[in-house]
Amino acid sequence: MAKKPENLTFEQSLSELEQIVAALEQGDVSLDDALKQFERGINLVRNSQGKLEQAQQKVSILTQEHDQPSLQPYLAEGE
After folding, report:
1. Rounded to an integer, what distance in angstroms lies between the CA atom of residue 60 and that of residue 21?
2. Which of 3, 10, 29, 73 has CB atoms 3.0–4.6 Å from 34's, for a disulfide?
């Protein structure tokens, strides 16, 4: 039984999507099977897109933290 898209890694989802596209491009799939594979592909794409958005947010947070100087320059009184 195929894993749920949310339980797959991004790489596993991408690999499965490539397999689905290859099978659909060959045209040897019945209409019912093609629709099932198409639906599975859409679910994989949506889940992968969510994972990419999460990764982008993490990168954004990490780079924001590093853009801020950790030490403030010392200003003596009168400067």
Report:
1. 32
2. 29
41 touches 21 (CB < 8 A): yes
Q: Which long-range contacts (CB under 8 A, 24 or more apart) does 6-13 make?
A: 6/47, 8/44, 8/47, 10/48, 10/51, 10/52, 13/44, 13/47, 13/48, 13/51
**pLDDT tens, 51-67?**
999 999 988 888 776 65
Q: What is residue 29's DSSP assignment?
A: S
pTM above 0.90, yes or no: no
Please provide the DSSP assignment of 44-76 as one string.
HHHHHHHHHHHHHHHHHHHHHHHHS-SSPPP--
Q: DSSP letter at 7?
A: G
